[in-house]
Amino acid sequence: MLDYLPELLKGLHTSLTLTAASIVVALILSLIFTIILTLKTPVLVWIVRGYITLFTGTPLLVQIFLIYYGPGQFPSLQEYPVLWHLISEPWLCALIALSLNSAAYTTQLFYGAIRAIPEGQWQSLRRAGDEQEGHAGDPAAVRL
Questions:
Q1: What's the Cα-to-Cα distance from 48 to each of 17, 75, 85, 115, 120, rounded to whole Å?
Q2: What is the per-residue burial (b if ≥16 Cβ within 10 Å, else e) of 56-84?
Q3: How far apart are CA 8 and CA 118, in angstroms?
Q4: What is the distance between the alpha carbons of residues 17 and 30, in angstroms, rounded to a whole number?
Q5: What is the spatial distance between Cα 66 and Cα 80, in angstroms, rounded to a whole number?
Q6: Which of 26, 28, 30, 43 is a Cys-bridge partner for 102, taking CB atoms 3.0 to 4.6 Å apart?
Q7: Domains of the chain
Q8: Is residue 38 a contact partner of residue 111, using CB atoms and an 8 Å limit?
Q9: Are residues 48 and 36 in contact, defined by beta-carbon separation less than 8 angstroms?
Q10: Measured between alpha carbons, how far is residue 3 from residues 6, 7, 8, 12, 20 in Å?
């Protein structure tokens, strides 16, 4: 067991780095997607809901396989060396898969928290003029 400790520690470092990076990317994506859902632009909402349905409705392992092995099926991608290098990198493919999957679930969480704020509170914030300052629903969203 101790003979393999250096390899295990290297794997631990890779796992922790991948986890931290995917959490950051997923948080940024989920905030963007939540804003899109709250704006209620029909086409964008439809696209985001389709994305959420796709990534929450399929197993993560299938997503990882499709992201890693899928683009390699298109030989025309090899004509673009930078793009080919990015999609053939296992760590980056794992980052993309984990980030997109986590962002889908986190978007649902954030959007549900915003929808849980009572309409009366939104109306009172609009009446008080706080919505223009970007503070609408902050206390209630934090409590949820």
A1: 27, 29, 28, 16, 27
A2: eeeeeeebbeebbeebeeeeeeeeeeeee
A3: 49
A4: 20
A5: 20
A6: 26
A7: 19-114 (1.10.3720.10)
A8: yes
A9: yes
A10: 8, 9, 10, 16, 28
